[in-house]
Queue: 2 jobs
Job 1
Amino acid sequence: MSVKVICGAMVVLVWSCTPAPTPFDEAAAIERGRGIAGATFQQLSARLQAAMASEGPSGALQYCSVAALPLVDSLSAAQGVRIKRTSDRIRAPHDAPDADEQRRLNEVLTLLAKGTAPQDIPPQAVVLVDSVAYYQPILIAMPTCLKCHGAAGSDVDSLTMAAIRKGYPQDAAMGYRVGDFRGLWSIRWKR
Ligand code: HEC
């Protein structure tokens, strides 16, 4: 389509005559986001599993966090990428959703309520004011997750339960089963 021909001819397209920002390449943004989420998950999961093996779940609590993860720090310093996780049932208050994260969470919850399987919920990349936001579902992908996010009293032992209650008095991230939707990766970078 030729913008030159359309400009001036159609009022609705007048905006395209002003110097346009670089067009948003959604597929490239999704690829970038997916790569960052995947690498972050690998680092997080390796660290979490090592801590679980040596200290058990109650001693490994701090390792299910993207805070102070070397990759998260280096990407943020070198590339201005902000890596966060959020959820409709949060454990750590710092993971609470902002307005656009809440928008995506609502969309996902609607899809789930309509019967879409958690693994079929697609990633999404959108443009915010001056940044790109990338969202990708996080699932309770393995039984290990249940040691701290499963049923209190059976999956989660009493020591871990007590440590979670103490560290996260507002916790809402218990009672999951394998395969459940747990939350979203929320990754942003400057446009
Ligand atoms: C050793 C206990 C433990 C295990 C095992 C664990 N988590 Fe967590 N999880 C936590 C804690 C504690 C937090 C809060 C971290 C923080 O303070 O940043 C958390 C936070 C999260 C969050 C961020 C949203 C929120 O509610 O704050 C997600 C998403 C999450 N966990 C998913 C998982 C998944 C998926 C697995 C399995 C791969 C898993 N967790 C395994 C303890 C655990």
Note: The chain has a mean pLDDT of 91.
Job 2
Amino acid sequence: MKKKIFWGIGLLLLIIQFFHPPRNKSTTAQPNDIGISMLTPDNVNVVLRKACYDCHSNNTNYPWYARLQPVDWWLNHHIEEGKDELNFSEFGTYKLKRKIKKFNEIAREVTDGEMPLNSYTWIHKDAILTQEESNILINWANLMAQKLTQDSLRLAAE
Ligand code: HEC
């Protein structure tokens, strides 16, 4: 009985290796990327790209173990959920209200140390934000939220 279960699990693990979700890779230009469509200083861009883009953009740099199942499904779930919440590659398409909300959320998540996800920095040590890098992101996100809020008030007054 135990032997059968063992072989059964082994076989299942073997079979699932042949099934992978589509890769989160885009070969086309991303004109609505936050780095192009919003005021994004270089030092902000650098941090976003190294610590956030793997889950919050249309281009993920896959680690070698993404070839292993069920790890790939698990990574893919994070990418899908992450992009649903916030996709930096498509930020320019968001409505003004949503942009403001997202900038506020970025400031809050980074302040609270919630992002990047722990399960990510556990392996991607270079994505652990230094205090300086966190401050760069937080100050920028707060500033952008403020600026866009002023824009929306001005639009409302017109
Ligand atoms: C390993 C994947 C991963 C990385 C890397 C990552 N995120 Fe996320 N992020 C997620 C997932 C999954 C969610 C949705 C679930 C949740 O809120 O935990 C999310 C949600 C968010 C949200 C919305 C939270 C809310 O209020 O609902 C913001 C804002 C965010 N991330 C910002 C960032 C920023 C900024 C970085 C880089 C400093 C980053 N994330 C890095 C996976 C990731």
Note: The CA atoms of residues 26 and 140 lie 27 Å apart.
